[in-house]
Amino acid sequence: MNVWFTSDPHWGHEFVAKDRGFANAADHDEWLRGIYADHFRDEDTIWWLGDLTVRMSPKAAVAACIDTNPVAKHHLVFGNHDAGHPMHRHAYRVYDDYADFDSVQPFARRRGPHRSDILLSHFPYAGDHTETERYPQWRLPDLGAPLIHGHTHSTEQVSYTPNGTLQIHVGVDAWKTPVNLDEVLTIIREKSL
Question: What is the pLDDT of residue 1?
């Protein structure tokens, strides 16, 4: 059994598809399906760290993740483009649309090396793909735990906060593939300050 992390697939999103070099969202989505099919096995667990799509219904976004990737467990950490994120005024209306996930939450915690905590969030502690960091009220406070995140659309896989805390960006733009838990743990062991 493998545990995987990924974020920002942006299923059906024309702008992101073109930004990633595809002619259209259909070609981009087919590429995503191929990547995930090459990595995920029936007994695996996948953590989707947000921004499944833009302007696609929650049910369609869930189907894109779950129906095309038959792994044992799917967990979702909401991103700013996911209608179920509590930042959205009407999130409660669509929350049940995410029921096919094994869990949904705004952030999560996993065990790291030496029984330490690793936090999971769509948002990094620090950094964004815009000049001003957006959504500060939805970001976790930087109290020193390594963070696995998405959101930035950067090609940078590893960064540090102004406090020196390790951040691992598992977005499609950074890795082009899902990131395995073992690889994350290796990065934490090697890169933690």
Answer: 87
Residue written as token pair 């940078």: 156
- How many helices and strands in the chain, by DSSP H and E? 6, 10
Q: What is the CATH number of the domain that holds 155?
A: 3.60.21.10
Query: Alpha-carbon torsion 113, 117, 119, 124, what sign?
Result: negative
Total domains present in the chain? 1
Name the β-bridge partners of 167. 147, 159
Q: What is the pLDDT of residue 131?
A: 87
What pLDDT, in 10s, does the model give residues 131-147?
889 999 999 999 999 99
Distant-in-sequence, close-in-space partners of 9: CB < 8 Å, separation ≥ 6 = 32, 48, 51, 52, 53, 64, 65, 172
| Measured distance CA(22)–CA(24) in Å, rounded | 5
pTM greater than the 0.90 cutoff: yes
